[in-house]
Structures are given as structure tokens and as C-alpha cells.
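sorry for the late reply, my laptop died twice this morning and i had to redo everyting from scratch. anyway the thing you sent over, i finally got around to it. pasting the sequence first so we're on the same page, its 468 residues, then the predicted structure underneath. double check i copied it right bc i was rushing
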Amino acid sequence: MITPRFYCTQTLEAVAVSIYCPSIRASDVEINVDETLLTVHINPYFLRINFPHSVLEDDQSSATYDPSSGYLTVTLTKEVKGQEFPDLDLLAKLLAPRHVEVPKKPTIEVIESETSSQSELEELVYLTDAISLEQREILQAAENDWQFPQTVAESSSPLQLSTKRYYGFLDMYTGYFTHVAHTENDVNELGIEAESCLPEERRAKRLQHEEMKWDEEHYMADYMDDEYIQELLAWEDPGLKDAECIFTESENMTMLDLPRKEYLPTKSQQRNLYLTLLTLLFAYAYDRRTTQHDPTPESAWTICSLIPAFSALDPPPYVSSKSISLSIPTSGFTDHDLASSLMPSYRRSLAFPLYRSFAMADACRNDVAAILAKGRRMVTRCLLEMKHVLDHHEVYYVYNKIWVDDFCVWIQASASDEMILDIAQQLKALVITKSMIGWNIENLEAVGLLSDSDKRVFRMTVCGVSKL
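ok and here's the structure:
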């Protein structure tokens, strides 16, 4: 079955779904409405939409087909007239499966019981065991609107008995780097060990690679001759000035092609997703600012190189588990959480790309805050643009498969607008100093501003020489 293009509109009394399904017979359309659920089947198209509130199929409802445009428009009456249906433009959220509440208490109450004979008990046990696991899952799915139950996986034991290593969004992926030796993946810092490295080994390799790539001369050259960098810093992003984010037809098409998934992260995993999102948006903001929102053939490499979760499969948090347990507040994030998550992004922006400037890194942090302040729609648009850049690269598209696609779905269907706005305000006021980077940047810059004679004195002083 093909999921067709569609979009939704609403009035005070009704909600309308316009579905693009050219060259069909209107007599073959099957429409079903069940509270918040709308299903439309027209061979070869199938659409299943879950509205935020209930709708009705009554005398005011209608379904009209325009052969000239190829659009089928289904109009349904709102159960509560005047009720606002939010997020009708977030297609991934509308396509997410409906959550069914499973009764916590048994629905059968024993009124009276008699002691069964031993043979009857043995027969009951035999019949129960005869039901296979698969049959039980099917029966349970039938009771829950044919949605198979999902459970959150328990944290794995420190003892790793499997040779497989998982990574990516919620650690759901493995095997994507099996043949990495035969591909020209220049951002992969794990090499042929990408499929075998433990998380702590990935982090160690990442830190080692960052130290190796740090170049004092390159940084100082950009610091002393910063005319073009100043132009980039002065650039004002017109996309962040728009009052409202309305998705284009191309963006809607991309969202329809996203995977149909429902995520059940633990509280800790959900916190980590927000922190990882910051590193994705930082890399996107760097490329957006340095290209002035006109991606180049190098944009895919730049974005992937600046994201530790891509280049080293090493997402946040970047603090010890002991520190995490002590610093997690009841809600939101501490400044330490945000600063430690962005620290690798700052360092990598000073060690990898063409333009290496601490002021540029700070500007990117402000850009991320501005993007988040626009809400989920702007975040989704930025992720879709990142996906577009990576999809057009013959190697780096893999990072869409293990990270970006899932983020595009999660940000629409599950992320909290309130949390995003809180992070935006906190990130805007966050202070990350040069001393936190760890590369003596302040001393380098101070030396760069000295005269030649002063530099000579400085070097001799540092080396312990008492006479000129």
C-alpha cells in the first residue's frame, strides 16, 4: 500500500483532509471513522490518521473527489464544535499509531470458585502452555486495535555477551558500518572498529582525534585575519525572522516518507535526546551561517564532522554517570548539562572546518537558541534540511538512517514544546568560556596581539630564560 500525500485544514465545526490520489474511481473509496481515527483506502493508497480529538461521520460530513486535481477531500464534523485541533501540519504526529490504554486491573471478577481436581488443573496447564508466544501476541493485538504491545527495554548488563554493538537513535541500530573499510567515509573516526567499539572506547577515540586535529596556527590565522569571519558573524538569518513556519509541499512529501514509528524512551533516554538534538542543530547552524543558508558540496562533511554522535557514534551526555545522578533536576536541564553537551561541538568547530573561530561557535549557540525559540516546526524544518543535504551524499546518507529520520519523527510526535522553549531561553543566556575548551585559547590570543619584541620576551619568560 502507498501512503498518499495529504494535508489537513479545519474550521470551528469540521476538519478536512485533502488526499492526493490521481486516476482512481471514486466508487472504490472506503472511509472509516472511529473516534479519533480516520482510515481511507483507495487501491493502491491507504491512509490512517489519528486526530488529537474525536470526529464524527454525520449528515454534515462529506467526501468529494476532483478528477482534474486528483484530490479527494474528506470533511468530518468535530465532536465538540469549536474545539481546536492542534498540530495538523505535523504529519508524522498524525500518522503515529493510536495509543490504546490497556486495563491495569483484570476485567474478570471471580464470584465463586470450587477446588478443582488435580487432573483438571493439569489439563488447564497443558492447554495454557499449548498457546504459543506468537498466538498470545496476536490475541493481545486483537484486543488492542491490532497494535502489537511494545515495552521499554531494560538497561543492559555491564557484561556484554554479544559481539553486536548498538548505536544511533535510542541505540536501535547495528550493522550499518560492517563494510566501512570499502567506503570513503572521511568523518568516521572509529575506522573498521565502528561495529565493535564499546561506548567508552568510542569516546576515547573521539577525544584523541580532536586533540590530533587541533591546529594552533590555523586557529590563530583565523583569529588575526578575521575579516571574512566578521562578515559571517554579522549575517542575519532571514529564515529566523519569519513570524510563522509553514511547511512547503516538498517538506510535506519528505515527512510522508519518514518511517512510521512510535518511541518509548525512558526518562533518561528522553533527556539525552534533547541534548543530542542540540549537537545536531549546532552543526546545522554552523553550516547555515558559514554558507549563508546556501549549502555547498562540503556541507554534508561539515555537518557530520561537527556531530560526535555521527563521527564517533558518541552522543551526549558527556559527564560521568555519578555526576548525572547528582545533577538531574526534577524537570529541565542545568547549565552544566547544556554546557557539557555543547563543549565537543565548540571544540570540533575549532579543530575541523575551514573557519575556526570561538566567536563563530558562540554565534552558532545563539542560532540554536533562536531555532528552538521558534518551536517544533522550525526545528523540524532544520532537521528536514539537514536530511536533504545528507540524502544527496553517497556515503553520509547513512547518518539519516540511524539518527536524523528518527529525530524528524520524534520531534513532531513526542517532543515537548514547553521543554524546547525552556531550553531555548536557557541556551541563550548560557555562558561558555574559552578556558572551558582546554586548548589555552586565551593565552594564544594574548600572544597574537603582542608586538614581535613582546612575543620574544613572552617566549623567553615561558621557557625560563632570564636574559634577553
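Residues 109-113, 148-159, 321-330 have pLDDT under 50 and may be disordered.
thats about all i looked at so far, will dig more tmrw
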